[in-house]
Write a sequence for this structure.
């Protein structure tokens, strides 16, 4: 497990941590009973490996942060399958993302967070991107790489638990400053986002905790 320090830390929310690890054969013994039941119910081996790797990484994070009651964690899902983590009755924000070789986990004391990670070698064509952009977002394509826009949108829908089926076009991005963005979802939910490239991956993170000095340019 390795912790990541975002390069533009001013735009990263407090009490929020990000780690990654390789996807290998994780020690499923550290999973809780509830996690083991969900893991065993998965039929696709690759998905089982990703699930276990993410939960083991979360367990290691909680141990490192010395969180009391980490083995008493429980999960609840909304209607679209977004997992909500509770530790001794307190909700924590958690979001997982995987590439072909790595698993990433964001953990926060702010419940509403979303993480999306893609290999920086992944190509997102302009044609595909324009299908998920709103007209007001098209000027962003002149300044922001396609992969960054794609991961920002995915992080936003994951933060509110809509799932990709809700349509990335439901997210409206607005560039703020440096690597920071603001987003609205269906003109109802407002989020702050940041995006950066580390460990050969594009990493985008969304949250609804307040941050100072975030102004649309």
């Amino acid at each position: 497990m390795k912790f990541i320090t975002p390069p533009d830390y001013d735009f990263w929310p407090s009490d929020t941590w990000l780690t990654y690890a390789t996807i290998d054969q994780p020690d499923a013994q550290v999973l809780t009973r509830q996690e083991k039941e969900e893991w065993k119910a998965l039929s696709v081996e690759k998905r089982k490996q990703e699930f276990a790797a993410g939960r083991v990484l979360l367990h290691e994070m909680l141990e490192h942060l010395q969180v009391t009651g980490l083995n008493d964690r429980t999960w609840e899902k909304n209607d679209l399958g977004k997992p909500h983590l509770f530790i001794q009755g307190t909700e924590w924000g958690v979001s997982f993302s995987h590439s072909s070789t790595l698993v990433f986990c964001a953990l926060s004391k702010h419940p509403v967070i979303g993480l999306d990670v893609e290999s920086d070698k992944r190509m997102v064509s302009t044609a595909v991107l324009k299908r998920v952009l709103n007209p007001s977002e098209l000027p962003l394509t002149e300044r922001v790489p396609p992969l960054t826009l794609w991961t920002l949108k995915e992080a936003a829908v994951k933060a509110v638990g809509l799932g990709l089926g809700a349509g990335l076009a439901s997210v409206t991005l607005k560039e703020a400053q440096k690597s920071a963005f603001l987003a609205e979802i269906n003109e109802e939910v407002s989020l702050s986002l940041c995006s950066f490239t580390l460990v050969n991956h594009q990493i985008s993170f969304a949250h609804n905790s307040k941050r100072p000095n975030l102004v649309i340019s």
User: Anything to note?
Assistant: The longest helix spans residues 45-64.
